[in-house]
Amino acid sequence: MSDTIHWFPGHMMKTLRQIAVDVRNVDVVAELVDARLPYSSKNPEIARLTAGKPRLLLLNKSDLADERKTKLWIDYYRKKGYGAISLQSRDKRSGQRFTQEIKRLAAQTEEEKGRRQAGKPRVMVVGVPNVGKSTFINMLAGSNRAKAEDRPGVTRGKQWISLPELELLDMPGVLWKKLENQQGALKLAITGAIRDEILNREEIAMCMLDALKAAGYAEALCARFKLTPEQLQELDGYALLEQVGRNRGMLMARGEVDTERAAIMALDELRGGKLGRITFEEPSDYDL
Length: 288
Ligand SMILES: Nc1nc2c(ncn2[C@@H]2O[C@H](COP(=O)(O)OP(=O)(O)OP(=O)(O)O)[C@@H](O)[C@H]2O)c(=O)[nH]1
Ligand SMILES: [Mg+2]
Prior knowledge:
Elements: H1 10-22, E1 28-34, H2 44-49, E2 55-60, H3 67-79, E3 83-86, H4 92-112, E4 122-127, H5 133-141, E5 159-162, E6 167-170, H6 182-190, H7 201-214, H8 218-225, H9 229-234, H10 237-247, H11 259-271
Parallel strand pairs: 1-2, 1-4, 2-3, 4-6
Antiparallel strand pairs: 5-6
Helix pairs in contact: 6-7, 7-10, 7-11, 10-11
Bound molecules: guanosine-5'-triphosphate and magnesium ion (MG).
Magnesium ion (MG) binds next to helix 5.
């Protein structure tokens, strides 16, 4: 990459510090990850700061993800000692499963400590920006108590939300400073966890097309962008993005492809689920 992505604004440092303090006052930490990126959207800083607490991973936006891979990831994280369930923020049944699972985790911990659960379980809801934390809390609450929008960085301060069975703490989305894996940062950008304005969209779109190819979505790519299997096999990076633009008739003067426009279109279509249900990562790509 030409420029480093500046994904770590100052307020995220503040949020990490806040997590370190507030974790002492909760029973369970619920981390939302993007089911399309179950590895790259899991924040290692959150893992470090919440070690020792019962943790529930929620693979959210599972309506956009590949069901088969979601199951594999749930197994993977359970083996690692996490509670793990798939989720759709606006789906009421997801909410019931979540509440059950939280109660189970909270009760189990108290039992291990030889205590009885006192009061409602307190749950800290964390995760990368734009993963659906506030939408999920609003669904559980049955009203729009937390602000939710389709851009990262909507929630700016923490907020306690009291429900009949749980106390929830909505936190601002947070990334991590040492995102040493540039590929991981680009993937986060594909799913909208990093603001589009600070990025090179062509670079993100190229990364997306290559990642789709590598993750076994050749058919979906060919169908959506009218690529032949030969083209897909031969081209990658910029050349592939150019071909996609050309096939969609995005030409400028002298027949050059408007790759900026092609990038915006390709990203919009992926984010809107037009390429079908997609998961970019498989557990077999990573160590357990
Ligand atoms: N398809 C789909 N979209 C979802 C789901 N959950 C949330 N979204 C959308 O994702 C966008 C971000 O949702 P928010 O709830 O604001 O995300 P957040 O994690 O609170 O974001 P920050 O406060 O910026 O960290 C919104 O447009 C939601 O409608 C889901 O399960 N499926
Ligand atoms: Mg929010």
